[in-house]
């Protein structure tokens, strides 16, 4: 249990700037986390499998894999392609997840779509963290949520607007070819 460390961490909120960087968070973690939790944190944030299996990382990889499979099926359906070659072998399916992704993809603006997908990730991470904010699971979940906030904070508004415009034009061109 990480009573002291967890109580020093500011609350993270979607659509708010991160209170510090992921790199700063990792530095803070070094002094408080067990070697196993620290290895899991580093592996998860670096998107590398940890040397030792960790229950939270396993659960996150499963949940993220399910989300990615739903995204593959959704995109394949929109492009009239067969998704099988791109699906990951992950057990289970979640109709709530299917509905949430469908709702996200109903948004015409790619930026809003991506925000909705990150909201799905955020809520999934909160569920995996559990109810006790002082556990290793909660600290690992915090790291994932912080990485989402940092990704949004890094986005340059002008470059993002140009990318969104390009995507909108591509989507419009795809609609014309249907």
Write the layout of secondary structure elements.
Blueprint: H1 3-8, H2 22-30, H3 35-45, H4 55-79, H5 95-105, H6 110-129, H7 136-154, H8 157-176
What does this structure look like?
The longest helix is centred in the middle third of the chain and has 25 residues, at 55-79. This protein has helices at 3-8, 22-30, 35-45, 55-79, 95-105, 110-129, 136-154, 157-176. The protein starts with a helix and ends with a helix. The protein has 178 residues and is mostly helical. It is globular. The protein has one domain (3-176).
Question: Keyphrases for this structure?
Answer:
mainly alpha, 178 residues, 8 helices, globular
Outline:
This protein is mainly alpha-helical and 178 residues long.
The general outline is: globular
Question: Main sheet?
Answer: none
What Rg do the Cα atoms give? 18 Å
Structure annotation, total helices:
8
């Amino acid at each position: 249990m990480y009573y002291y460390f967890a109580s020093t961490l500011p609350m993270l909120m979607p659509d708010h700037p991160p209170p510090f960087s992921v790199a700063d968070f990792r530095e803070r973690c070094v002094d408080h986390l067990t070697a196993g939790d620290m290895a899991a944190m580093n592996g998860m944030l670096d998107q590398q499998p940890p040397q030792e299996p960790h229950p939270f990382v396993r659960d996150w990889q499963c949940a993220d894999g399910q989300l990615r499979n739903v995204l593959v099926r959704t995109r394949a359906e929109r492009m009239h392609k067969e998704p099988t070659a791109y699906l990951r072998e992950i057990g289970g399916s979640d109709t709530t997840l299917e509905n949430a992704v469908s709702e996200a993809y109903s948004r015409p603006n790619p930026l809003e779509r991506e925000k909705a997908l990150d909201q799905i990730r955020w809520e999934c991470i909160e569920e995996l963290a559990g109810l006790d904010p002082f556990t290793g699971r909660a600290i690992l979940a915090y790291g994932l949520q912080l990485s989402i906030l940092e990704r949004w904070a890094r986005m340059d508004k002008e470059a993002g607007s140009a990318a969104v415009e390009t995507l909108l034009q591509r989507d419009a061109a795809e609609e014309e070819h249907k």
